[in-house]
């Protein structure tokens, strides 16, 4: 999304205030490689992931401000975007938006 | 996945086979391979099951050539979607089956490098070869799966978006190689796919293969002018964008239409008109309407809502 906005001149260095990954996987199918790149120009990155699901799952990212491995909560790729994680990310958006 | 569910998958694959999916260009089911794929997708999708899954995929790899296995996996995926659409399996089962078959496909293909952003050229050529015989199918479920496979060949993950001009950033270099090797038997369904996704790249690819250097240069120059016009009109805040096509782009479009009679150049004209009717003139339309190539008629029909 950040890349699309930048490619189309709809965002600049200072406008991508907050980004979040929820069990992020690269869009380079068919390998289901976990996403480890920071979104372009992102000022703040939240990363939530689990490894209970074999395919697909996210992973730890070195370049992030806020990261949690939710594997121990028993979440799967299908359930990780359920309400509690979503609410947690929404609260971060409110916290870091201008 | 439960045994009952696995039985349902096997039964349904056989049911669809016996039901005889219409359309000549349907992949023939190989029961032995379908059964092994069904076994793989039925395994628990957990970190602990990883080794067992990979063991079963190794067994599958021994059963036939990569090309044939890819076709069988596409067949399985098509039937999974048919079952899902018919309400015979849940969204969760469908999702797991599609993910697991896609993962299995991934194990048959070699990435270009450790970024895993692109398939290596030999794997891309095998994938194109496995898809081509069925690409003209009338079976929309099969066609969707075939198109999904081709997206793995042409998605340019680091390319720039230009949505109205191209569905997503593409790299058609593998199609160029395939078309060069099969220069005398151009696959029209492949051309149709290429134009649907990214008409500009399709035109450049075909011009590079079929035109002499001078004609190729003029086509590439005109296409670049049109591409840049699309980019400018969709780039940046809406209030700053030009709202009309530039005179230069209109002229380039008219030149392409009038100076090149190849059906695949006229196909570009038809595709661009369907995206941007403002390029239309009576002369361009008249020339297109005289062209009886079925693919051009199809685009023109869709454009007119027929």
Keywords:
heterodimer, A: 98 residues, alpha/beta, three-stranded parallel β-sheet, 2 helices, 3 strands, globular, B: 306 residues, mainly alpha, 15 helices, 66% helix, 0% strand
Give the number of DSSP strands of chain A. 3
Order of helices and strands of chain B: HHHHHHHHHHHHHHH
Task: Give the largest chain-chain interface (CB within 8 Å).
Answer: A-B, 21 and 32 residues
How would you state the average pLDDT of chain B, rounded? 90
The general outline of chain A is globular
Helix content of chain A: 10-25%
- Biggest sheet statistics of chain A: 3 strands, parallel
What does this structure look like?
The complex is a heterodimer of chains A (98) and B (306). Chain A is built from two helices and three strands, in the order αβββα. Chain A is of the alpha/beta class and 98 residues long. Chain A has one domain. The mean pLDDT of chain A is 84. Chain B has two domains: 3-112, no CATH class; 197-303. Chain B is elongated and about 60 Å long. Chain B is mainly alpha-helical and 306 residues long. The A-B interface holds A 3-4, 7-10, 26-33, 51-56, 78 and B 45-47, 49-50, 53, 92, 95, 99-100, 102-103, 105-106, 109, 111, 115-118, 151-152, 155, 157, 160-163, 234-237.
